[in-house]
Structure formats: C-alpha cells, structure tokens
Amino acid sequence: MENTIEIQKYLPHRAPMLMVDLIVSMDHENVKTIFTIAEDNIFVEKGQFVEAGLVENAAQTCSAIVGSSYFVDAEGEDIPGVRVIGFISSIKSVKIHALPKVGAEITTTAVLQSSFDMGTYTTCTMQCSTYDGDTLLLEGDINLFIQQR
Description:
mainly beta, Thiol Ester Dehydrase, Chain A, seven-stranded antiparallel β-sheet, two-stranded antiparallel sheet, 1 helix, 14% helix, 47% strand, ABC transporter permease, ApeP-like_dehydratase
C-alpha cells in the first residue's frame, strides 16, 4: 500500500485508544481506513471486537477529514505543534450488523454530509460504513466536534 497515510498525522489518539491503522484514501469529502483487530485491543471481548470499538473506529475514520484541516496547510505541509480535541457530539443513527473476530482487517469508509467550520472548532455530520471483507459490520451517521487547543 504505497499511498497509505498514517492516521496519527491527523488524530491525537494514541494506543490503547487508536482504532485505525492507516488511511487508504482521503479527499475533502471521503475517507477510507483499515484497522487490524489485535487480541489485546481494549474493545475485544471473548475473541470479538465489540460494538463500542466499531463506533470508535468509525468516529476516528470520520474525524480524519476534518482533523486534517488543523494538521496540514493548504499546500499539504504539516503544521507543527497543533493539538486538537474531538468527540462524538451525537450519533444520529447506527446499525451494528455483525462483530468481527480478532485478526480481522476491517475497512471503514466515511462521507462528509455537512460541516460548520468556525476557525478554532468544527462540527460535522458524517455517513460511515465498516466492512470485514464483504460483510457489512456497521452503518450510520455520526456528528463530531473537533476543536483546536
């Protein structure tokens, strides 16, 4: 995967709360990530990645688009020393169809539905879906709040 981007470039999350390994593709409205579920993940119970982990994975995937505007300038150069906080402000809808097992590599895609940027903070609505191969695991709409600190 030559064109992948490390998610840490766009999110403040670190282990054990980092639920995305790499950004596979991203533009101003779409993002696609991958994540391999490890046995020692804090959201693994009885060999499965639980619902809270799927939601956190989706939220981190969604926030990469908006978060990138704080970490990278218009020319694509890193902005040093930036710190942000972000959280799910609401879950408009979420359907969990299945839970993946340890070792699965899940793929999550998100599409920006709307965004309100006030300079030091942004709120947005994202539509997301997560798959394990061809199996749909999660689909939903998430509202996020991201603020520069």
